[in-house]
Fold:
Amino acid sequence: MQRGCFMRIIGVRVLAISWLAVLLSAASLEAAVVVVGNRSDKTVRFTLDGGWKPQEQFSLAPARLIPVPVPDRVEIRFASGGSTVHETLAPNTIHEFVADRDAIKLRPMDFGIAGIPPSVAQARPAGPPSAVVVPVKLVAEEDQADDERTWQRQLRRQVAAASQFIELYCGVRFEVVEVGIWKATKPKSDPRRLLEEFREKVHPEPGWLAIGLAGPNYRMPEYLRPLERGREPLCGHVLVPSATKTLTETAQLELLVHELGHWLGAVHTREPDSIMRPPAGRPAGRREGQSTFDPVNTLVMNLYADELRARRQPSLDAFSRGTREHLYAIYLDAAMRLPTDREITRYAELVREPVLPEFRYVAQWVDGTRATGSSLAPWHETKSSPKLAGRDLFDPANPVRWLVDNSVALVPPESWVEFVGGDCLPGRVVGFRDGQESPRERLAPHLLVVPQQRVDTPDAATRPSVRVTTAWVRRIVWEPVADEYRPRTLFFADGRQLDFRALRFADSSVRLLREDGIREVPFGEIAELHLAATDPWEAYFEQLAALAPEPGARLVRLETGWGMRVTSTTERFQAAVHGPADKSSSWHHLVHPAWSLDALWLGHDSIRVRQYFAPHEVPLSRIEPNRCRQHSDLGGTWRWQADRNCEGTILECGGIGYPWGIGVHASCELEFPLPACVRAFCTRLGLDQLAGNGGCVQARVLTDPTAAQPLYTSGVMVGSAEVADTGRLAFDPRKPPNRLILQVDAAPKNSPPGADPLDVRDAFDWLEPLVELDPEKLPDELLRRGPRMIPCWQNWTVTSADSPTVRLVTLWDEYGAQPRGYRLAVSAAPGPVRVSGKLTPRPYRDRLMVCVCRPPNVPGSKLEVRVDGKPLGSFEVPVRQSPEFPPLVFSLAEYHGREVAIDLIQSSPDEKAVVEWRAISLVGRTQVP
Structure:
């Protein structure tokens, strides 16, 4: 009977269109809702376009509302004053029809937030939202459990009625999974102590929520006075009194719905017909069963439902950052409307981005949620599943974004090699090799660097040096003397400087091409060597082609306490243990960056920061700006810094540390190049903790300085407590911008009274800036650069299926000499790979030696050799089973002194077949094995 009363009140026919119809459809991990209410005195008919159903039509009576699940923004049409109104409604917003003289207008509810939660903006759902099923455990106080059938039947009926009512508003269903009895020992006259005892004695497992039935004398203590603990969203316990003559079943049901509304984040309101209005404040003439949910709490419960649907755990800590911000803004607005209700303020604090305590580990996941802990679950094997605070770091649905070990102190390196993109290897350059020392293995030109710290496992011999390719070297520092990067400049240890047009490395020196000739300088005389500037996006695509030639890998960037920064991938990672498996000091992790010919082993306890990105997610701090403009009224500013604030320390804003970003001192404008495949940009921003409660700035994001409106403009920011978010700024894929401009102005014209008049404290941070590339276009960028990653193919033309692209795969070199590492192999799919070039045989060098092999346990491949278009032979690619490469040798003696065209064709009928290419060279007879 009670359930029927609720159904008549809310208008089940209309609401069924919006929620129950889609609950039978496919599930999704993301959902959103548009809440439409009617505060006019007329029934309003409207149509929504762009929802889950084409052109959904609704009829909304006065004082009613409809929550409509939507996949993204929708268009609404309605008649007003003889014309048709068209408006766009964003997801997770509230809009109300109100009378406007003889017309109707749609008024949005503004909570002071910009945009919509990133969880909605960044991923369109795969299908309509499924129902969220909340498992419930029913428990009766021992005194009320004499007639087990009666209390179970009555309480099950009430839970079912409450569940069906709530499900209509937000798609959350409560289902009973277990029943039980509990014995109360506290006085029934003290509801606070009784509720606390219920929480202590009854565990909700296997449910998320335990609903308890107390005696008839129990009165909801929250209605009488605020508890110290009070209610909490998603708490594990709800206690309701038994129905009596003075507390009817309808009233009991309203209490239960009210409490379950609190469980889903709903708060008290002054809306007269809302079931979330406190009993003491309800209108005297309102009859039992005439309650509904108000628009604000309907939106709140839908936000909670969306997170429960995606996270599958009742924990505020697991909520995404975007949802937290949305809820925080709503709660603050609700607290202003009902300032005497301290519970609303507490809800706001509970969902606010937490200021995490000082634990050893702090992690943030892709959805923006964070967790802390003093230890990690074991990470001693490659296939380990490390966890922090019970959360899986590599959950496929929501993997970790970054992990920081606060116990690792930062120590600046004494000497180092710096790479385009921000990687850094602390150590001293002692030599150079051109990579052609052995005719049987062509290597990339590389420097020999003695690392500052050990990069081997404890049971391995210490290697004398690490081989570092010169392709992406930006700066070499033997002794730091320069304040900033100056392309094509050599700094002597005695203070002198030389600029140059080009350079070549020798065994232990550099040869500089200058206007006045060639100058050779030994390594021992150099303090710093700054190489020519390189296109940062070209370097990114090249490194990505070497690191992640196949889809599915995630980039991982590590930073150690002694200044090493290295970018690798999850596919080029291994873990090993040397000592007790439960001790983090025993764990060692292997990474293999694109710029190193050798894999590097790092002690887990030496790694301070780990960051993880999909290949199409590029931290802006790894891209060098091509222009920087700074201005200060005082005549001097701090230089911008990548991944540090402007003073070179950790980025911190709003009481929270950030592992990557760009620190500047206002006023500052940075201009960054963008590639053609760019799709979007997002960042957080705020004054750094260096500013304290001072500083005064305003920031903008632009792609065109002549545009009338920036992509984003912040409010005036004062003090380091505020962190703003641009949200996802999408670009037009038909005309993507070629630059990104980040501006921050000191002391803007609209500064509030009392703000800093000067820019002394205007230390500003662009926090976690991320450039999003088109994931569908990115593979083409990598395929075009694939041939460059094979050293022996330099100066050769490589095609595959008549296309200048080659598919590479990553392999562990099981049979290589120590230290082993990852290598790139070549796949013949989708067609044969043709390597073409020209050679001139001489009497002393007339043997063509091709060193190719295939790993064991992969299908075979053939290599066809042609000279001037004539077949020289077709050979099976040999299997490699030792550090030596078995060469294939062909005589070209009949072509002495004549340039001939050489074609080497790799083919296989099996797409899983791969081949390692190590050398193509002309050798003499005495060099043939």
User: Anything to note?
Assistant: The CA atoms of residues 850 and 920 lie 5 Å apart. The longest helix spans residues 148-170. The radius of gyration is 34 Å. The chain has a mean pLDDT of 87.
